[in-house]
Specification:
Helix 4 crosses helix 6, helix 9 packs parallel to helix 11 and helix 10 packs antiparallel against helix 11. A hairpin with a 7-residue loop joins strand 6 and strand 7. The protein contains 13 helices and 14 strands. It has 402 residues and is α/β, with parallel strands linked by helices. It is globular.
Length: 402
């Protein structure tokens, strides 16, 4: 078998394609992120993904199924418990999580945790509610400027976020506080959120407050080695774009690049595709989730996906005969669903190589089939979870005449 030299894996963060069998247990019966966002915009079009066969996975407005799609297509079930970012990404790379990370959306963080945090950091905290990151600084930013108390909040995901204005709290101090919060929460399983996030912002009043690019995540390390570790150990490149490095806490990563938007992430992927490497380019496009899914902005989500489709048209010609490009997601976030939480859904699986005809990959039993396929291709240790679909998309051996 002739292996692929480069694999590109793009996570379209939160782009679910229909409820899982257990969705009702999570309050997510009827969720279908892609279908519902597509019908929010009558003019919705995805010309490149249409050719790839995304309309073969679920019903999509103005995107019909293809008899001969350019990419292999399917959808994947989540075997892990939960529907958060870390769980989804970790499963993509071979891990099955049996316990969800805790979230504190209803009543905020417990008083005893806040007291310990204040004692060990020397700071007072305000907020302690579930809120949008842009709204929380509007609502609490002026009090922060007046009192110096740091803004602590959460969201629908398993996160503890701390926001501070750089005029009041220098960046290094904010990072120090977040590192302490990470240590405290790691010492108590009931408090062990997936990520602590430093959220610096600038501005003089609620009318001009704005978050800066110096966000920093303090994630829980994966509880076992992932396919990324096996690739790195075998001297393959593992190029992380976006929040991938934070999600895996740097484990198994050989190079990382931060991003400010989906558009910039795609520009970096396109630039990476023009360079030589041997291994995996792993990217996350977070805007779908953070800017549109959680805010239940269906039209904004649809427009953002159309922009991704246009940039996919720029990337596709750079995918050579020895490359594989996979597009997946990590969970759903249906913009017409109640609340602001992620939704328990199947995720799409699109696998493209210019020299291979698209085939139906069916419904995969877990996200880890992606990691198993990558490990199989690069002949590194296979994860305990997942079944490789490499034989269904593999390169054909070149034929030589005698």
């Amino acid at each position: 078998m002739k292996r692929f030299k480069r694999i590109f894996l793009i996570v379209t963060d939160s782009l679910g394609v229909g409820e899982l069998e257990d969705a009702a247990q999570y309050g997510d019966a009827g969720a279908n992120t892609l279908k519902h966002l597509s019908f929010s915009k009558p003019s919705f079009k995805l010309p490149n993904l249409e050719k790839w066969g995304i309309g073969n996975i679920t019903e999509v407005n103005n995107v019909p199924p293809q008899a001969q799609p350019l990419a292999s297509f399917g959808k994947m079930k989540e075997k892990s418990v939960g529907k958060d970012t870390l769980t989804g990404h970790w499963e993509l790379m071979g891990l099955k999580s049996t316990k969800p990370f805790p979230s504190f959306t209803e009543n905020g963080f417990p008083k005893i945790l806040i007291e310990q945090l204040e004692k060990e950091t020397g700071h007072r905290f305000i907020g302690n509610i579930a809120a949008s990151g842009t709204e929380i600084i509007k609502d609490w930013g002026e009090e922060h400027l007046r009192t110096g108390a740091l803004i602590l909040y959460t969201s629908a995901d398993s996160v503890l976020q701390i926001a501070a204005n750089d005029k009041v709290t220098p960046l290094e101090e904010l990072y120090r506080v977040c590192a302490i919060a990470r240590r405290i929460t790691l010492n108590n399983p009931d408090w062990m959120v997936g990520r602590i996030i430093a959220r610096p912002f600038i501005g003089d009043d609620r009318h001009n407050f704005a978050r800066t690019a110096y966000r920093h995540d303090y994630a829980v390390k994966p509880f076992e080695k992932t396919v990324l570790d096996y690739l790195k150990a075998a001297s393959h490149d593992v190029i992380a774009i976006g929040k991938i490095n934070d999600i895996f806490d740097g484990e198994g990563i050989t190079k990382t690049t931060k991003i400010k938007s989906n558009h910039q992430a795609m520009e970096i992927i396109i630039k990476t595709a023009q360079q030589h490497f041997d291994g995996l380019c792993f990217a996350n496009l977070v805007d779908f989730d953070a800017l549109y899914g959680h805010r239940r902005d269906a039209v904004g989500y649809a427009t953002c996906l159309e922009e991704f489709d246009r940039q996919l048209g720029e990337l596709t010609p750079l995918i050579g005969s020895e490359d594989l490009l996979m597009i997946v997601a990590d969970h759903g976030n249906d913009p017409v669903h109640a609340g602001t939480d992620h939704t328990r859904e199947h995720v799409p699986l699109l696998v493209y190589n210019p020299n291979r005809k698209g085939v139906d990959l069916g419904t995969r039993s877990c996200f880890a089939d992606v990691g198993a396929t990558i490990a199989d291709n690069f002949q590194v240790k296979m994860p305990e979870n997942g079944t490789s679909f490499l034989k269904e998309v593999e390169l054909e051996e070149e034929k030589h005449e005698n």
